[in-house]
Input
Amino acid sequence: MKKRVITISREFGSGGHSIGKTVAETLGIGFYDQKLLEKIAEETGFSKEFIEEAAEDSTAKNSLLFNLVMNRSLHGRTEPSPADTIYFAQTKIIKSLAEKESCVIVGRCSDYILRDNSDCLHVFIYSDTEDRAKRILERYGESEKPIQKRIADKDARRKIYYSHYTDRPWGIQKVSADRLNPAAYNPRRDLKPGDKDYEKLKRSIEEFGFVEPVVWNKATGFVVGGHQRLKVLLDMGETEIDCVVVDLEPEKEKALNLALNRIQGDWDEGKLAEVLADLDASAFDVSAPIWKATTRTFPSLW
Output
């Protein structure tokens, strides 16, 4: 029988674990979440608790563990950090599982590790913030940290961890094209079929595929980055678009739009002036580190 492997990435509190477990039970195949941690623990000698916490925390820029476990120089010798050791082990184990059996694998960069496997279905589970908060409180209970802060911190660590080991944005989702609303304030010059840059972009997508996702703010429904790529894809008949999904307030959305637009494209100076005026009126610091953002990481936003 042909193997079926499903990888599940998920926002904190979105129910990814429960969904994955239900899918595995329904299909009668293996389910690897805690069981995967057990296998990594056996392979590395680290405890499950260390693997579960340190693997993400060690790559968080403000974490004490970042400075501790990512330090690769030990007594003058260059060695893999504990976080790297864990990643190498989970890569080996995940590839082995995919070769041997049908299964559902939760997290651990499994979608990236199995990116070249044709028999895999990669799923990203997300949910509204209110639903996530309710689920977290029901499952884990209250803590001293406010629930919104718990969600933001956990998702931020997952973003940094995933980006660190994959060099890709965390949270790429297929979004129906009819949900992607171009931002009227977008200050870049609008391209049209026949324009030199439009045709260059179209040829690039046709030759290399769609390798740079659109950035979409689920809080407002507006496209934040990738307006021209979206236009080309829609003209090509695409109905579902790969997106990096963010959840931002309008002011931060506009700031991110400008940060992304600094990278490429020509300004519509009238719209640019309007956006800068809006941000100035909202007291958003347009000189803040967000201006150093790239399409890979936006740490100053979370």
In short: The two ends are 44 Å apart (CA to CA). Residues 58-77, 263-267, 283-302 have pLDDT under 50 and may be disordered. The CA atoms of residues 58 and 66 lie 4 Å apart. The chain is about 45% helix and 15% strand.
